[in-house]
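DM from R.C. (forwarded with permission)

"hey, sorry to bug you on a friday — could you get me a structure for this? deadline for the figure draft is monday and I only need the backbone to look sensible"
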Amino acid sequence: MSLTAKKSSNPLPLKERIKVPRQLMPEQAAAERAHNFSEVNLGYSAELAQQEALRCLECAKPTCTDNCPVGVKVKEFVERIVIGDFLGAAAKIREDNVLPAVTGRVCPQEDQCEGKCLLSKKVKPLGIGYLERFVADYEQRMGTHIVPNAAPTGKRVAVVGSGPSGLTVAGDLIQKGHKVRVFEALHEIGGVLVYGIPEFRLPKQIVREQIEYMREMGVEFETDVVVGRTITIDELIEEEGFDAVYIGTGAGLPQFMNIPGEHFNGVYSANEFLTRINLMKAYKFPTYDEPMLDLHGKDVAVIGGGNTALDAIRSALRLGARKAYVIYRRSDSEMPARAEEVHHARQEGIDFQMLTAPVEFVSDGKGWLTAARCVRMELGEPDASGRRRPVPKEGSEFDLPLSVAIIAIGTGANPIVQSTTPGLGTNKRGYIQASEETQRTTRKGVFAGGDIVTGSATVILAMGAGRRAAKSIHEYLTTGEW
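My reply, with the result:
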C-alpha cells in the first residue's frame, strides 16, 4: 500500500493502539554487564520493532517531530516500520539525521521527541529512540546505504571538530554539493562520541560505521590537526582557500571544585578518566595496559550527577572497583542524568550518596588520595537554575575512604581557537558568540555551534545547531550575503 494514500498502513484501530504495552528493550543482566564493556541495551528484533510501531497514533500534527532538534519525521519513518520497509525507514531518518545509530542510543528522547508524544498523556510514549536504533542497525547489517550524489558547487567548507555538531554540518553540506573537510585534533574521528561515551553505551564500532558512511558520501577527514596551533582559522580561509568555516570544537576544558587536595594522585577530571578508558583503550585490559586505571580492589567515587558522571563511575565498576559511589549534592529528583542510566547504575550496584558534597580530599602524607571529607546537605530555596540550593548540615562531616575520585561537575570552553582568531566574538565565559537562528559569528564566513556556543549540552542539541548552521552556510555560499 502506498504511504501517500489517505488510508493508514497501521492495521490497528486508533482506540486499540493505546492498549498495546510499550515493548521493553532487551538488555544484559545487571550482574553480567557490571563486569564487561559490552553494550547494555541489546536492541529490538524486527518483531518487537513492528509491535512497538503499531502504537503510533499517526498524529495529524506530529509534536514529536516539532520537539526533535534535527526535525526527524517520526510519523513517516514509523509508518515504514509498520509495513516492514526497514530500509525505507532508515532512509527517511537520514533525510534529517546523519547519525541515527548514535542518537538512537544516546539521545535523551524522553526530553525531546518522546517527551511530546501524545501517548504519554495516558500511557508510556512511543519508543522512538528504540525504533530509530533498530532501523539504523538494520541498515548497517544489510550493508545498504543510499549515497547522495549532488552536483558539485565548487565551494569548500572547513569543519573544525568531528563531534556530533561538526559531523552533522558535514553530512548536510556534502548533500548540497559542497566539498567538506573535517579537522580533528585527536587521532580518532568522532569527538565526544569516541572519547567521552563508554563502550557499553555507544560502541566505538557504531561510530566508525557512521563515519565510514560519511566518507562514502564524500566527506574528507584529517586527524591530529589542532586548529589554532597547527593551522589558524585565518590560514584556512586565506591560504587554504576555504569559502566558509564551521567551529564545532565542543566544551572540553575540565572544571574542578577548588577544594583542598584536588592535586593529589588519584583525583581525575571526568574528561581525562573517560579519555584514558575510551581512546587509550583501558576497557580492553589486559590487551591494552593502562596502569593508572588498575582499579581492582579500589574504592572509587565520582562527584556529579549528570550523564558524564554516571558514564565514569559505571566504567570504574567495570574496571574492577571494589566500591563505586556517586556523590551528588542534591536529591534524586534534581539529578540531570537520564533516568534510564540512573536505573541501570542502581541495578549494577552503584552506591548513590545523595545530598552529599566533598569539602576536602585527604592523602596518606605522600600525595596519594585516601579519602574524601564530605558533608551532608539539605535543600533550601531555588537557585538561578530553578533547582533547590543545597545547604550544608552543621556537624555532618564524615570521611569516605577512596583511592580514586573523579570530578564530573561540568566543563568550560577551550580557548585555543578563540584566542587565535581576531574579530571572533566571545562571551564572558569564553564561549563563541553565534546567532541562535543562523549560527553565524562576528567573523564573516565563520559559523559556530554546539557546546562551544551553548556550553555543555546533549548530542542531539549539538546536532540541531549543526543543521541550522548547514542551512545558513549553504545560503551564504549560494548568495554571498552575510
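R.C.: lifesaver. The chain has three domains: 14-142, 156-252+412-479, 256-409.
me: no worries. The CA atoms of residues 266 and 292 lie 9 Å apart.
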